[in-house]
Amino acid sequence: MDITVNILLTIATAATPLLIAAIGELVVERSGVLNLGVEGMMIMGAVGGFGAGYLTGSPWIGLLAAIIVGALFSLLFAVMTLSLATNQVATGLSLTLLGLGLSGMIGTSFVGQPGVRLPNLDIPVISSIPVVGKLIFGQDPVFYISIALTAAVMWFLFRTRTGLTLRSIGDSHTSAHALGIKVIRYRYLAVIFGGACAGLAGGHLSLVYTPQWVENMSAGRGWIALALVVFASWRPWRVLAGAYIFGAVWIGQLHAQAFGIPVPSQFLSSLPYLATIVVLVLISRNKRLTMMNTPASLGQPFVPDR
Amino acid sequence: MSANHDRSNLLEVRGLTKIFGSLTACDYIDLNIAKGEIHALLGENGAGKSTLVKMLFGSLEPNAGEIFWGGKPVKITSPGVAKKLGIGMVFQHFSLFEALTAAENIALSLNDGSPISTIAAKARALSFSYGLPLDPDSLVGDLSVGERQRIEIIRCLLQTPQLIILDEPTSVLTPQEADKLFETLERLRSEGKSILYISHRLEEVKRICDRATVLRHGKVVGHCNPREETAASLARMMVGSEVKAVERAPAEGIETAPALLEIRGLTRKPATPFAIPLKNINLTVRAGEVIGIAGVAGNGQGEFFESVSGEVLQQDAGSVRIRGKDAGALSITGRRLMGAAFVPEERLGHGAAPRMKLSENLLLSRHATDGKAFVGSGGMVKNSAVYSAAQRIITAMDVRKSAPDPEAAALSGGNLQKFIVGRELDRKPSVMIVNQPTWGVDAGAAARIRQALIELARSGSAVLVISQDLDELFELSDAIAVMHNGQLSAPLPIAEATFEKIGLLMGGAEPGHAEHSLEIA
Question: What is the mean pLDDT of chain B?
Answer without folding.
Answer: 86
